[in-house]
Amino acid sequence: MKILVIEDEKKVASFIKKGLEEEYYTVDTAHNGKDGYELALEGEYDLIILDLMLPFKDGISITKDLRANKIVTPILLLTAKDKIQDKVDGLDAGADDYLTKPFAFEELIARARALLRRNENTKSLLIKVGELSLDTQLHSLNIGTQKVDLTPKEYSILEYLLRNKNRVISRTKLTQHVYEYNFDTDTNVIDVYINKLRGKIEQHTKAEVIHTVRGIGYVINEN
Ligand code: CA
Fold first, then answer.
1. In the β-sheet with 140-143, what is the strand arrangement from edge to edge?
2. Collapsed DSSP state (helix, strand, coil) of residue 212
3. Sign, CA torsion 211/148/223/1
4. pLDDT for 102-151, tens place per residue?
5. Cβ-contact 63, 77 below 8 angstroms
6. Nearest-CA neighbor of 168 among 133, 122, 214, 199?
7. C-alpha of residue 113 to centroid of ligand 1, in Å
8. What angle do CA 179, 28, 111 make, to 5 degrees?
9. Would the N or C end of the chain have less CB density within 10 A of its end CB?
10. What Rg value do the Cα atoms of the chain yield, rounded?
11. 24-78, pLDDT tens digit by residue?
12. Topology at the third CATH level for domain 126-219
């Protein structure tokens, strides 16, 4: 899952990013409202964590404009203390929840999880394909009755392929999903992760799970 953090205080932004990455999320950050808005418009995010006071474009106006553009990504607003009107304006503009600064990281992660869960209600928390069973809450993979240990990047790639089962996902798309925006990475890195994933999966099943589509990318088929 990919989260966008729009926060002009760089220390706060990197604190949030680091914490979320430890929870297996992929995180993009933007340090002003204009860049953040543009990323939110074009990117495929599962959640946006949005500071209210930002240079060039404030959080309320970002929220309003995203909703006007039919971007329905859940938005968690970060607001200053005792500005009740800001919270009301934010929620009225289309934000889903808010958190008052300063906050404990545990609370941020709990609210983020709640919003992601709400968004996921139509999706299943447990994705099953063949012998594989991926728990998207616990971030764990089981093959049959055996638990398979995955690194955050391996998990992220597998989750994305499973969520898009029966669809061929290009290596570029996979790279964009598991790396930060502008991360100057070679898509060959994805092949390395896929090989590691296959190695781990093959220890528990004889079935070929991740198929290579030559020249394009990868697919997991359900059958
Ligand atoms: Ca700010």
1. 126-129, 132-135, 140-143, 146-148
2. strand
3. negative
4. 889 999 999 999 998 876 655 567 888 999 999 887 889 999 999 999 99
5. yes
6. 214
7. 23
8. 115
9. C
10. 19
11. 899 999 999 999 999 999 768 999 999 999 999 999 999 999 999 988 899 999 9
12. Arc Repressor Mutant, subunit A (1.10.10)
C-alpha 53 – ligand 1 centre gap (Å): 4
Nearest to 71 by CA among 51, 47, 97, 92: 47
- For residue 38, the CA-to-ligand 1 centroid distance in Å is 17
Ramachandran area for residue 81 (φ above 0: left; ψ -120 to 50: alpha; else beta): beta
For 2-121, which CATH superfamily applies?
Response regulator (3.40.50.2300)
Spatial neighbors of 22 by CB under 8 A, at least 6 apart, are none
CA of 157 to the centre of ligand 1 (A): 32
Q: How far is the CA of 10 from the centre of ligand 1 (A)?
A: 9
- Phi, psi (deg, nearest 5) at residue 100: -90, 135
**Residue 102 CA, ligand 1 centroid: distance in Å:** 12
Cβ 18 vs Cβ 180: under 8 Å = no
Q: Please tell me the distance from the alpha carbon of residue 32 to that of residue 10, in angstroms, as a whole number.
A: 10
Q: Considering only CA atoms, which of 47, 101, 106, 37 is closest in space to residue 73? A: 47
Domain boundaries, the chain: 2-121, 126-219
